[in-house]
Amino acid sequence: MGTVNYHCYNYNDDLYLVDMTLTIRSDEIDLLQMNVPEDGVSPMNWQAPYLEQYLTLDGKAKLCELYDEPSPPVNPCRIVFFIYKCGGKILHTPYGDFPLTDTEETPKQLKEIVEFEEED
């Protein structure tokens, strides 16, 4: 299953930036199994990771382009992605359930390398 180092950052007024380091191969991560359950909402409409990106373990560089997976796969691997601040407050993953909170500001280093597409 893999051990997890987890952080949830307050990226902006609308989004959390989730930062996970997993002790599994990057090609074994199943983003489709990660979601934010929400009462009264069909599971088909639960939030899922958005703009996922793989980073070096020190978080100083990206390993590949946006949405791509590292080639060759890496283990351990560090992945970041966005979740909207609405509805549920728990990120459900195959590696455990994690709180979505905004208690930490996004480190400057992450803000500088993580790609984010502003909505029109």
Overall form: globular
Derived structural class: mainly beta
Helix share of residues? under 10%
Portion of residues in beta strands equals 25-35%
Largest pleated sheet = 5 strands, mixed
| Backbone CA Rg | 14 Å
H/E element sequence: EEEEEEEH
Strand order of the largest sheet: 3-4-2-1-7
Tally of individual helices: 1
Number of strands: 7
Total of domains: 1
Q: Give the oligomeric state of the chains in this entry, treating copies of one chain as homo and distinct chains as hetero.
A: single chain
Highlighted features:
120 residues; mainly beta; five-stranded mixed β-sheet; two-stranded antiparallel sheet; 5% helix; 32% strand
Condensed summary:
With 120 residues, this protein is mainly beta.
Structure description:
The chain has 1 helix and 7 strands. Helices cover 5% and strands 32% of the residues. It has one domain (4-113). The protein is globular and about 40 Å long. The protein starts with a strand and ends in a 7-residue tail after the last helix. The strands form 2 sheets. Strands 3-4-2-1-7 form a 5-stranded mixed sheet, with no helix packed on it. Strands 5-6 form a two-stranded antiparallel ribbon. It is mainly beta and 120 residues long.
